Amino acid sequence: MNQKIKAKVVGATGYGGLGIIDLLLRHPCAEISALVAREDAGKRISDVYPHLAGFCDMPIHAADDPAVQGKYDVVFFSTPDRVGMADAKAELAKGAKVIDYSGDFRFTTLAAYQDYATRLGKDPQHLSPELLGTNVYGMPELHRAEIARANLVGNPGCFATSCILGLAPALKAHLVNPHGLVCDCKSGVSGAGKKAKPQFHYPERCEQINAYRLSGHQHVCEVERLQAGQDVTVVFTAQVLPISRGILSTLYGDLTQDVTEADVLDIYRKFYAESGFVRVLPSTAAVGTMSVRGTNFCDIVVSVDARTRKLRIVSIIDNLMKGQAGQALQNMNVMFGLPENTGLNQPGMYP
Amino acid sequence: MNQKIKAKVVGATGYGGLGIIDLLLRHPCAEISALVAREDAGKRISDVYPHLAGFCDMPIHAADDPAVQGKYDVVFFSTPDRVGMADAKAELAKGAKVIDYSGDFRFTTLAAYQDYATRLGKDPQHLSPELLGTNVYGMPELHRAEIARANLVGNPGCFATSCILGLAPALKAHLVNPHGLVCDCKSGVSGAGKKAKPQFHYPERCEQINAYRLSGHQHVCEVERLQAGQDVTVVFTAQVLPISRGILSTLYGDLTQDVTEADVLDIYRKFYAESGFVRVLPSTAAVGTMSVRGTNFCDIVVSVDARTRKLRIVSIIDNLMKGQAGQALQNMNVMFGLPENTGLNQPGMYP
Amino acid sequence: MNQKIKAKVVGATGYGGLGIIDLLLRHPCAEISALVAREDAGKRISDVYPHLAGFCDMPIHAADDPAVQGKYDVVFFSTPDRVGMADAKAELAKGAKVIDYSGDFRFTTLAAYQDYATRLGKDPQHLSPELLGTNVYGMPELHRAEIARANLVGNPGCFATSCILGLAPALKAHLVNPHGLVCDCKSGVSGAGKKAKPQFHYPERCEQINAYRLSGHQHVCEVERLQAGQDVTVVFTAQVLPISRGILSTLYGDLTQDVTEADVLDIYRKFYAESGFVRVLPSTAAVGTMSVRGTNFCDIVVSVDARTRKLRIVSIIDNLMKGQAGQALQNMNVMFGLPENTGLNQPGMYP
Amino acid sequence: MNQKIKAKVVGATGYGGLGIIDLLLRHPCAEISALVAREDAGKRISDVYPHLAGFCDMPIHAADDPAVQGKYDVVFFSTPDRVGMADAKAELAKGAKVIDYSGDFRFTTLAAYQDYATRLGKDPQHLSPELLGTNVYGMPELHRAEIARANLVGNPGCFATSCILGLAPALKAHLVNPHGLVCDCKSGVSGAGKKAKPQFHYPERCEQINAYRLSGHQHVCEVERLQAGQDVTVVFTAQVLPISRGILSTLYGDLTQDVTEADVLDIYRKFYAESGFVRVLPSTAAVGTMSVRGTNFCDIVVSVDARTRKLRIVSIIDNLMKGQAGQALQNMNVMFGLPENTGLNQPGMYP
């Protein structure tokens, strides 16, 4: 490619924005052209994140700064719900491809969006309903071809990514009852973002594990909606742990067929044969969150509990990579016809 | 009580031995009379654990040292499987009450023990089969009266304690299908004991969450056997996290009745009405492992997922307290007719 | 003592207030009579700290609430600078003894206070200058007799406690040049208090060590002023580490005499012969912050570097205990004629 | 460069070996040709470090395996003392350049080596004395030209790197008295290597800070010997903290001149003008170990304490990068005439 892909990052100062900046800096075919954030406008990004000094010292602009109203090839909205739905349209009109991290474009019908927003107690009015249907759910392992043709991608949530990748092959093969699937999910603290909060203050967290919001999560909608055409219901438990990065989701379903672990391994490996970021492993594999830290991999460990006829899947990602910025970059690669792992083909830091 | 209870601690240098030493030092009616350990015999316990200097400087004896063959009121075997079954008999014969931490006396029939040992790939021969039947499973919340009459108690495992306390009221009330219960358990590293191992080396653990031994655990037997007379099956997942102390078990069962969270709260609170160490809490409770750290409490959070008809219980203990030494002391109190919380009635350290 | 000491805690919801509550709950001769805090008035303390549920469920009052204007035997001001200096007088007038955690009463002359306030860029006007001179610096190891006679005690800072206890014997014995002493101090995060801040957000802290405010600290004044009559100057470096509790201060001075480690051990042990909370140890001692966690001990390791003629002292405390609430309780014991370790005579939690 | 540099890594399974493997995998002009280790020979490196699966699956060979006796362009000895001194000669004879991580080639005269070995209680006999004098101390910031001409480089120790980089400009400019310099050094646990040890067992370390081996360290020799021709003495304190990666060394010297912080900044910046990996910062800089994690940078914060006439330098590195493998690769680049930051020019992972 002669000309580099010009990228604009909206929400540049959060962990999601930082993540895509870090990745774009290493990408051979893309470059950062504009940084936008509500806070810290006027500063340089390396003032906010000193480890970037010398690598990226670009200024941060307010969203309405004339300096950042040009045409970009790709715009990343690393922003909360309702920002992308307001601003994506203008970017698309100028010819940009848009990747949005929020719930705004994870659903492809207005009804589905409204169900999601209502369950969460949010305003159910979508600000760009005409875009719904043109957008694609940004999980290349399930929707590669559609993403390749799309201009607007809703980047999946981190918990949902781990659950959907862990469950999809079993559901497609009708291995498990699609109702009452158990998603027991554990996340590091960075999943809650950059903002300091009492429950994440170091002394309150360093020996603390807790479950939260047992009554319901946005992730439930996302997991239930986006399986391949089946009617799925899940019980979902979110838990926070004292690590910085990582999600480990343990998923349980009632087997509907007599299968062995070898059978399941085979089904999963075939399902992900074209998906280099998913590594399917047997129940004896010694993997954990450190196996994927800093990478875009999803490690999936399969096991069969014959006594209780349960399928049990352990699905492991880095919540800031495959769960956020890494997957966003993977989507960009697919949208621009690049090899999917461009700029992502590197082992993590260890230890 | 005019005369203090004289206690002998076998396995004094592990975390389980240390735990009971720490508790006995604060107990108003008991005193430590002998310390036994295979390693470090000849040293003082405060050489091994400097924080005990000035509080307990007693020598550590080898098991066969003549100095520790006297009569004690209570003997704690904080030892691996097959030590207590060999040595408890002699202590009982001298008139001691015995509390054993291992699997040796958690089962009250030879068949049950052999099933357990076989599943674990251990020698199924029990060295004191004549004691089986005289022993009691040491969970006062379920077996208080029997423990009060017993001379030999098998102290429960830490994972099993969290699961059984979380499931027992629901099973007794026939709220859930007893088959295919999901026990998703997360433990701090101290649950693996004091011995340094590669997977618990600080740099390998500080960002690591992993599931292990997916193929099966001793805990399954313990949980399945010891519910009130029902035929129960569970799928059990053990996971290790970078905290020092604490277990959080998330338990899922298929509801067999239409119940609300309020109904379940009521059932659980009645079940534990006499059990001061169990605190039953609604789904909105903001608790975690730090709520129970350093204490003998078990915090149980109940929730009902109406959409999937699942009962979900979050059960939280300190693995070294209610999961080990605390429960052992609670058993001692019950066996000696003391108030159950003697020497245990203290809030934990925070933060 | 027939009648328990009635205590009022002002600033009850911070870590310093929580610390003294936890200690008073276990104290055999004292009881909590009133809790005051600016935030959370109207709640119960166990709403703020759930681990206290069942142990202390008292309500939190605003400072001016008529319910807390009675006479108390002791009032703890666990408050920032300028609260105690405004409110202590009224409490003293009602006959209470007062222990203040802030800088307000750590200096016994107006000039010294003003020097401190000026160096820190604070308002140099003291609101109760007439009390200066009646107050005592609350370090029993150095000022036991004065504290026993005092009604008003300024509780030392945590960093200063570790430095002063580490340096006092050497200065008194003229072992070191009193000028240019190096105090290299490392603290856990709880030393910064309960309030969540960006630099203590778990993901920003878990792998972070940093030095801060190199240009100067309040602690310098406190260390320099309060040595036994000598003119002392120190260079002081504060560093924060990812632990919850603990301070380890490494102190360096230029030896003025030819001494061996044995000589220094002897001098230090004699100096602290009556001070049970100070444990003097040789350079080979294997101690660290976990040796004192949850206790009021100060572990002091002495070493002599003959090649460079340096005395090096490692001084270790729990910043929330000997560095704050523990020392406050120790002061209370001394002020009320109780054995100094009443309610403090317990080993820490391990591990 | 048409032909890639062929590298052999001896000691491939330790953290130092892993570090250079990770770096070589990303290096545009080098490739890994052989992996050697005493343990795990026969396995693949990705069996030992699963995060390398798909990136490096090469087999591990025993040192004497015929398969690894060929000619390599560069050999890294990531091995303990006395391995490199035995085996480097043969590699040099075959035409390889050698970079050794141990103390074997950090001294350029036999007398200096023997002094070092004797102080440490090691065998003072060097196995390749004829090589001493041909070797260079591998700190490019001080010895760039010699390294460019050398075939044998002794890679500096991690503690020494942080101290020497922090002190060298001040010593060269005669800003400080070269005697009695204080090096107060704090390291993460990975500095102790990969082997699990009781003091690094997660529960024993997560709240533990401690100083160790107060009586003396190999690092003292290294720091004292290798300053630019001056007679230097230091008192050195090594402390271990619960982080995985990072060293923060706080260095103190007695000023011999009246200088301001601005003067010192100027002197340091000039000294390191050609050294892109050293970032010199004022006393107000908000940096810590996370600023350099995963990178080859050394952040140096300068401050002047005018009252005590002390120069205070805070020197921060990643002990596994600039303190070990990163510096080794930097040396390789210099030895092969490549730009010094080839393969190292990347910001660290954050958070």
Structural overview:
The structure is a homotetramer of 351-residue chains. Chain A is of the alpha/beta class. The first copy, chain A, folds into two domains: 5-155 and 325-335, 3-Layer(aba) Sandwich (Rossmann fold), CATH 3.40.50.720; 158-322, Dihydrodipicolinate Reductase, domain 2 (2-Layer Sandwich). Chain A is built from ten helices and 14 strands. Chain A has helices at 15-26, 45-48, 84-93, 110-119, 140-149, 158-172, 202-205, 218-225, 261-271, 321-335, and strands spanning 5-10, 30-36, 60-61, 74-77, 97-100, 136-137, 152-154, 181-187, 210-212, 234-240, 247-254, 278-281, 298-305, 310-317. In chain A, the strands form two sheets. Chain A has a seven-stranded parallel sheet, sandwiched between helices. In chain A, helix 1 (15-26) links the parallel strand 1 (5-10) and strand 2. The model of chain A has no long low-confidence stretch (mean pLDDT 96). Chains A and B meet through strand 8, strand 9, strand 10, strand 11 and strand 13 of A and strand 8, strand 9, strand 10, strand 11 and strand 13 of B.
Question: In a few lines, what is going on in this structure?
Answer:
Four copies of one chain form a homotetramer. In chain A, the strands form two sheets. In chain A, strands 3-2-1-4-5-7-6 form a seven-stranded parallel beta sheet, with helices on both faces. In chain A, strands 9-10-8-11-14-13-12 form a seven-stranded mixed beta sheet.
